From TrEMBL:
This is ATP-binding cassette domain-containing protein. Pfam families: ABC_tran (PF00005), oligo_HPY (PF08352). NCBIfam families: oligo_HPY. One of its GO terms (molecular function) is ATP hydrolysis activity. Belongs to the ABC transporter superfamily. GO terms for biological process: peptide transport; transmembrane transport. It comes from Phaeobacter gallaeciensis. Its main location: membrane.
Length: 321
């Protein structure tokens, strides 16, 4: 197997409360140094509740946010964080809210043409052929190309968002909550389309979502994020059926149906630790029924628990827990 995407010690820290000429009040570590690999053709799901660092991670991966530390490698070659245009050729982003992510003043054809012009230097005829090919692949009618984003339903707009990401010929897609804004009936259509496109174009997906059931259904492997760190990673079928980390178990127990949010529904306090004053030990220790003194002293390292399953826990769950 070839590694498509390799992240090594990738982290992001934001200064907060910074005044124009003064020092910052503190630093928020949105993503702790994180290392993950995604194999070619694989779908790696990333789950975690609101505030765990999913969006920050996604934005770093597509060059929208420079990492504070660490490296991003694509097929063994490091991406230069100082050259965001390079990212677009290798990794593309599919946004959660399809309609507002499309420029309302441009036709779909203009939206689709932009990445082709910048990335490939194609002739007008070549661009037209490429746009038609991609549009057919996402099952949209050619006449839609001359319409504007507001004329589309959420599901159609998300197909356009996916088509735009594919136009640049990138082989890695970061799908950031790609179906969360859609009706449940439309979600399945978009998920099926993503599965077809993956086969057809040989794509690799990083599928970010707070919706555990969706992630479980589409992913080969899943990484569970908590407070900016990977607490467990492993094959999708094992991660939720036999979780090793008590946080993964909490997620698995609280999200049995498609479309249902994780532990903290919209608007409710997440019970995550204060990012300006993080605990010295395991970030989950205050919520964990198994926490011991050791857990409150130093964060547990990510260690292999069983074949392919890694968890950061001093008291990993046994299969009977
Ligand atoms: N620009 C920023 N400045 C300061 N703190 C930030 C910034 N962006 C994110 N954060 C903080 O970093 C942490 C992770 O945020 P992030 O948006 O990545 O989480 P998330 O899992 O994507 O959440 P959601 O699902 O609600 O978008 C949070 O504590 C957030 O408040």
């Amino acid at each position: 197997m070839t590694t498509a995407l390799k992240l090594t010690d990738l982290s992001k820290t934001f200064p907060v409360g910074k005044r124009l000429f003064g020092p910052a009040k503190g630093m928020v570590r949105a993503v702790q140094p994180l290392s993950l690999s995604v194999e070619e053709g694989e779908t790696l799901g990333i789950v975690g509740e609101s505030g765990c660092g999913k969006s920050t991670l996604a934005r770093m991966l597509v060059g929208l946010l420079p990492p504070s530390t660490g490296t991003i490698e694509i097929n063994g070659a490091p991406l230069d964080a100082a050259d965001p245009a390079l990212f677009g050729r290798k990794i593309q982003y599919v946004f959660q809210d399809p309609i507002s992510s499309l420029n309302p003043r441009k036709t779909i054809r203009q939206i689709m043409e932009a990445p082709l012009k910048h990335l490939h230097g194609m002739s007008a005829a070549e661009r037209d052929a490429r746009i038609r090919e991609i549009f057919a692949a996402v099952n949209l009618r050619e006449e839609f190309l001359d319409r504007y984003p507001h004329e589309f339903s959420g599901g159609q707009a998300q197909r356009i968002g996916i088509a735009r990401a594919l136009a640049a010929d990138a082989r890695i897609l970061i799908l950031d909550e790609p179906v969360s804004a859609l009706d449940v009936s439309v979600q399945a259509q978009v998920l099926n389309l993503l599965a077809d496109l993956k086969q057809k174009f040989g794509l690799t997906y990083l599928f970010i979502s707070h919706d555990l059931a969706v992630v479980e259904a589409v992913s080969d492997r899943v990484a569970v994020l908590y407070f900016g760190a990977v607490v467990e990673v492993g094959p999708a079928e094992q991660i939720f059926a036999q979780p090793k980390h008590p946080y993964t178990k909490l997620l698995a127990d609280s999200a049995p149906v498609v479309g249902r949010a994780l532990v903290a529904p919209e608007g409710r306090e997440t019970e995550l630790p204060d990012p300006l004053n993080p605990p010295p030990g395991c970030a989950f220790s205050a919520r964990c029924p198994y926490a011991s003194a050791e857990c409150r002293q130093a964060p547990p390292p990510l260690e292999q628990q069983s074949d392919g399953v890694w968890a950061a826990c001093y008291h990993p769950l046994s299969e009977t827990a």
